Amino acid sequence: MLSDIEIAKQAKMKKIGEIALKLGISEDEIEPYGHFKAKLSESVFERTKNEPDGKLILVTAINPTPAGEGKTTVSVGLAESLNKIGKKTALALREPSLGPVFGIKGGAAGGGYAQVVPMEDINLHFTGDMHAITAANNLLCALIDNHLQQGNPLRIDQRRILFKRCMDMNDRALRQVVIGLGSKANGVPREDGFQITVASEIMAILCLASDLADLKKRLESILVGYDLDGNPVYAGQLGGCGAMTALLKDALKPNLVQTLENNPAFIHGGPFANIAHGCNSVRATKLALKLSDYTVTEAGFGSDLGAEKFMDIKCRMAGLKPSCVVLVATIRALKYNGGVPRAELTTENVAALEKGTVNLRTHIENMRKFGVPVVVAINRFASDTDAEIAVIERVCAEMGAQVSLTEIFAKGSEGGIDLANKVVSTIENCESRYAPLYDEKLPIKEKLDIIAKEIYRADGVTYTSQAEKALAEIEKLGFDKIPVCVAKTQYSLSDDPAKLGRPENFTITVRDMKVSAGAGFVVVYTGDILTMPGLPKKPAAESIDCDNEGKIYGLF
């Protein structure tokens, strides 16, 4: 069997100008980065602003195994299949982060015969968006420390600086650091730390900004810390937001690439869903809706994370209304939720599968709480048996949800035609009544209580003393009437990754909160979730190589 990168290398890509024309984008409206990828100019937004929107399809998933369940693969394949049956469709996905690429999970360009290409470029430096976000983030950090060095006229309390440095790499050694050591010329010594770039507020701002003016306004609103009297200090007070905007002006433009079958794909923005809001940029999604009849997008990890944030944060802020949710499930993940060890997931186990289907049922119920119809996509693996497939089909029938057995990984668009037809049928016959889960004007504790009980199925929420202190500060600043973004493990509906299936008799513990004033939400930290991941014992980086001609090997 060919690896993902071997399949991608065999792709017969078309020049990016040809791909743009499929969406009615002229050569003058693209800014090529080589032959096969491009940025889209502002003129496209201006030209299409009065065009009607197409239908928006969200792809999400059940709680996954540590290896992931092919949600991006299904997203790519569904877009391929919709185009195959004659529906003008665009794909709108997140950009991969280098952290997972060199860590354990791998890239985010799909897999098998459902990929976006050029796969190596997309998974590595791409068009430099991640680097621009990193640079803008760290410019603000440099401005903060320079302010301290140059006399500190704002009287910033160096013990209460909230904004951290970032880099697009898993590096646990940088989670907590001390900076400014040495002579006086080296700066003011203080504790600091790094986040991975995808957890940076700058990433969230880029993905939620509507244009350059909105981007700059959001950057100015970043709460960087407090002064010695306890008053808030915002990025706008430091005077460098114009320079940050200059670093981000090109990164704000969506990227256009293609699928293996030469269909258009927007890849733009990449916040993780377990530590951020988990959706691609509003700009890319909105533009795709203007240029196509159907837009397929995805939200990270299970529906308890990415999809909840997609519905409650992205759609609310951007005025988006999804027409259908595709819920990706795999038999191996359901067996995992039924208690089967990872090493035994390829062995038939109908009893464990039956037990694990409670997770699937819960995710179907959860998505319906937003008023959007659900189609279940079973991402089929070679080890799946007829008896196991029959269990899933029965469960979906009992839930009143259409189900499609997809073989997109192995067959590309041909393997997803049944799914495409069922999605179109659902959109045409089942009206979406999308609405957010909660009123954003409710107190933070009430919003969290609703999410915990309705989505996670917890008995309630408990708060550490640090969380209570942070909440009081957020309320004092007047940032309590905005959406909440929960940082939580992706492996469980609870905040404990060991509690699989549909846990019962538990509470969610909030250990801290932080306002992302520029992004427009409050980040709520639960469990032991970290904003700077670490590398595994055997990082994927050990298997990646590049020959003397520049050809990359070992990238999945």
Supply Rg: 23 Å
Distance between the termini: 12 Å
Helical region count?
19
- Content-based structural category: alpha/beta
User: What does the average pLDDT come to?
Assistant: 95
Biggest sheet layout: 12 strands, mixed
Low-confidence segments, given as residue ranges, are none
Number of strands: 25
Helix residue percentage = 25-40%
Which percent range describes the beta-strand content? 15-25%
Can you tell me the overall shape?
globular
Structure report:
With 556 residues, the protein is of the alpha/beta class. Helix content is 36%, strand content 20%. The protein is built from 19 helices and 25 strands. Strands 1, 2, 3, 4, 5, 6, 14, 15, 16, 17, 18 and 19 form a twelve-stranded mixed β-sheet that branches. Strands 20-22-23-21 form a four-stranded mixed β-sheet. Strands 7-12-13 form a three-stranded antiparallel β-sheet, with helices on one face. The longest helix has 21 residues, at 129-149. The two termini are 12 Å apart.
Topology, pairings included?
Elements lengths: L3 H6 L6 H7 L7 E3 L5 E3 L1 H7 L6 E7 L9 H14 L4 E5 L4 H5 L7 E2 L2 E4 L1 H5 L5 H21 L6 E6 L3 E3 L9 E3 L10 E3 L1 E3 L4 H8 L3 H9 L2 E5 L4 E3 L6 H8 L6 E5 L4 E4 L14 H10 L2 E5 L4 H16 L5 E6 L1 H7 L12 H19 L5 E6 L6 H14 L2 E5 L1 H4 L5 H13 L14 H13 L3 E4 L1 H13 L6 E4 L19 E10 L4 E6 L18 E2 L5 E2 L3
Helix pairs in contact: 4-17, 7-8, 7-10, 9-10, 13-14, 14-15
